[in-house]
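Quick illustration, no need to memorize.
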Amino acid sequence: MLFMNGRVGKWLNYKYPQNFIIRNPVTGTLIIALFVFGFTSLYKPFNTHASRAFSYEATMAFYSFLSGIFIFLSVRILKTIKSFSNSKEWTIFKEFLSVSIVLFVLGIAIYLLGFFIEPSAQRWNIATFLNSLKGAILTGIIPLTFFTAINYRYLFSPVITYNEGNIAAADLENQPPEDLIQISSQLKKEELNFYPGQFLYAESDGNYVVFYLSINNLIKKEIIRNSINSIEKQLSGIPYFLRIHRAFIVNLKKVKSKQGNTLGYLIKLSETEIKIPVSRKNTKIFNKLFAKYHS
């Protein structure tokens, strides 16, 4: 407890973008499998060898792609755990722990798969298991930590905070009463109504879009069946509502801080501690419109 409450603990609990492979298990599994197959085929590390029944390349393909199934399942199970289910509440500690779990599962997969292509009598020992684990860690750590490392900029980039209160007060004094926004659903049976000033952000979730609204100083969550593309069109009449990511639309007037650079931002909205990504291709338009409404 003292360790986690100290300086190191504070650093481990620092908010951090979730690893791409953890966030996208299908694509992530393919990336690891292809990398491991290519790496082992080219360099033949850790005394890897062909089985009696297959060529070396076929053996490595067997290990790589079937172990990918183990990785996929481990990530899916990991994301069902409450502490690891919310990518927006990700921390450095969760990043390190999830990467370690995936690497450990990869080692177990390689060890178990070996029983199908090598004499099992030669594998029932701790030395073989540790060797499988070492090979998995030294190979799989490269693609996993690559996606961790590319987010390092969020650790060192300054957090820019904006005085949203003055802007909001001036806007409310000088603008006429807001018009009610009406959002329709694909089902034609659902409808969501709210005022522009109540809107914080909307997030795509499969065939649904989740709206986060601030009503009477409380965050209200509303779900409607529709695509984020359709919602973007329905909100296009509000110039300070901006789609900053393939999955997010935000109210620029509610942004209170940003962190990152032109490769991408993490922004924080008023009334919530949730951080939302601004994708690289949207940073230019975000900066332009944000300056307009926060000048």
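The chain has two domains: 2-151, 157-293.
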